[in-house]
Write a structure and sequence with these properties.
Length: about 550
């Protein structure tokens, strides 16, 4: 970290870390320098187990094992593969939810290494160890266009947070105090959010609108949620279309409001919603909403289930009434489409600074540069763009996180810290306990920024601008009976929306960042996707086929 006295910034340039890039099944791969890696395998096994991979890392002096290919799938009801016994190695803390991370220390030499996956950075691309290493080096070279000292850090989120701090506005007036970056001037760090406001903001932290809109096992489990498609009445479809946002997050972070936040009572919240500029307010509202009596479309507002572990549901049954929190952008979508909204209170943020504008533009510029560089093989271009996307998305999520817990495996209860005694669980002949989030996340805690990005994203999914004009795109601009599901900024439908077709083919996609664009279309005779797995298979078929089917008939 960069320090000035006792004040710290979140800038972490990092350094080159010795890494082995290996196939998860065979253990073969390359080092950071491109030298071949041959796994150290004990006994008569053909392929290495986790202990073998750790021994291999020690043999090559690698502080990190980056797995490519198919990592072991955890089997329900059994111990996670990162938590198995590793003779000679102590598990010093593992995160078993995606993205997985295993931390280990050799019991005799005290050599430390981590187990991670290339998918954490590059998504589900099928990269060989050599390709993954090349993608890593290329991604880092693009990142260093922002600052030549910046390395890719242990996670995409930490890398993004460092780049965000490097992009914060600076005040060049000498009398202004505060942490300084090497770019000159004091950083204008967003103020911290008070605890009482933070408690209410926790009600707005559902990241994405995720909903399967086909009746069946995977449809929303609430009486106020009506599926758009009934497979009993429509057993087959002749087309599946996949639409999603073009680097959507980079278009959502302009002119975000900052803390500490001002509370609005009911009258003040109502007055702000009536103001002609209210739709541009940097605010969240607690609202009581009622679905219009003639409504027959997707829901607009997310509501927490009574059992919060069940997540969120989006009421769309005519007449249904609920209370929830929503971002101003979402509230104005509801008002535009005739929903009855009664604001109960609000929290409004200061619009003085632009804490994320530079960061968003820098990442978007890198995405454009990498995606358009034809000197880089196509697969690697996709990997770099995927890494930049993960850096952006995960850094936004990290702003609303105090840090995730990790599982530590020990031999005795005497090895468990006092503060973690309540999290102890038996684990065969050993025990596990949960360790709290790291300091890095707590120092970057600005949930007010993340929830504005997420709220705008949920609004954009439903009602977006396109090359045709404002409020011309999104799920609410599709025939409701064609909607099969939504997932973040992705829409699955049986229609081909003209607003998602490129302008060059007569559509409304003008190529700008944040536009909902056509990713792919397939036609045939398909079972209506009543399960997520069936829907995902059609989505992958769309990605492979591409979008050209949408305009080829027009040119015939």
């Amino acid at each position: 970290m960069v320090e000035e006295g006792k004040r710290k910034t979140g800038i972490m340039f990092g350094s080159r870390m010795s890494t082995i890039w290996v196939d998860a099944q065979t253990g073969q791969g390359v080092t950071s320098d491109g030298a071949a890696v041959r796994p150290v395998i004990r006994g008569q096994r053909k392929n290495p187990n986790l202990t073998d991979l750790l021994d291999t890392a020690a043999n090559y002096g690698a502080r990190r094992i980056m797995l490519t290919g198919r990592a072991p799938e955890p089997t329900p009801g059994t111990r996670h593969w990162l938590l198995v016994k590793t003779p000679g190695w102590a598990n010093t803390g593992s995160h078993t939810q995606q993205p997985i991370a295993g931390r280990f220390e050799h019991e005799k030499t005290k050599f430390k290494t981590e187990v991670r996956t290339a998918a954490e950075w590059f998504g589900d691309l099928d990269l060989s160890p050599k390709q993954a290493r090349e993608a890593w080096d290329l991604t880092q070279s693009f990142i260093q266009r922002i600052d030549e000292r910046q390395h890719l850090l242990m996670t995409p989120s930490r890398t993004g947070l460092s780049l965000w701090w490097l992009s914060l506005p600076r005040d060049t007036q000498a009398r202004t105090r505060g942490p300084k970056g090497d770019g000159g001037g004091s950083l204008r760090i967003p103020p911290a959010i008070p605890d009482d406001i933070d408690a209410d903001l926790s009600n707005v932290r559902g990241q994405h609108h995720i909903e399967h809109l086909v009746a069946g096992e995977y449809a929303a489990k609430h009486e106020d949620c009506v599926p758009m498609v009934d497979p009993a009445k429509t057993p087959r479809i002749d087309r599946f279309t996949y639409v999603d946002g073009r680097f959507m997050y980079a278009s959502l972070g302009r002119e975000l409001g900052v803390g500490p936040g001002i509370r609005l009572n009911r009258a003040e919240a109502w007055e702000l919603l009536q103001d002609k500029d209210g739709q541009y307010a940097r605010a969240v509202f607690e609202i009581r909403f009622t679905v219009p009596e003639n409504w027959n479309h997707i829901g607009i507002f997310g509501v927490k289930h009574e059992n919060v572990r069940d997540g969120w549901f989006y009421p769309n049954r005519p007449g249904a009434t609920h209370v929830t929190w929503a971002d101003a952008a979402e509230v104005f979508v509801g008002l535009q489409f005739g929903w009855i909204i009664d604001p109960l209170q609000g929290i409004v943020f200061n619009r003085k600074d632009r804490p994320m504008d530079v960061y968003m533009k820098r990442i978007d510029d890198l995405r454009s540069a990498a995606g358009g560089d034809e000197s880089i093989p196509r697969m690697l271009r996709h990997a770099i763009v995927g890494a930049l996307r993960n850096i952006l998305i995960q850094s936004i999520g990290a702003l609303a996180s105090r840090g995730t817990t990790r599982t530590v495996v020990v031999d005795s209860a005497f090895d468990v810290p006092q503060e973690a005694q309540g999290t102890v669980n038996p684990f065969g002949s050993r025990i596990t306990y949960q360790e709290g989030g790291d300091r890095q996340h707590r120092e970057n805690y600005h949930p007010e920024l993340a929830i504005q990005v997420w709220g705008r994203g949920r609004a954009r999914l439903l009602n977006s601008p396109s090359g045709f004009g404002n409020h011309t795109a999104g799920a609410l601009h599709l025939p409701p009976e064609t909607l099969l599901g939504v997932n973040g900024d992705a829409i699955y439908t049986t229609s081909i929306p003209s607003w998602a077709i490129p302008e060059t083919h007569g559509g409304g996609d003008d190529g700008r960042t944040g536009r909902l664009r056509l990713k792919g279309v397939v036609e045939g005779n398909f079972l209506t996707p009543d399960t997520i797995a069936r829907r995902d298979r059609l989505r992958k078929a769309c990605e492979k086929a591409g979008p050209s089917l949408a305009w080829k008939p027009r040119e015939a």
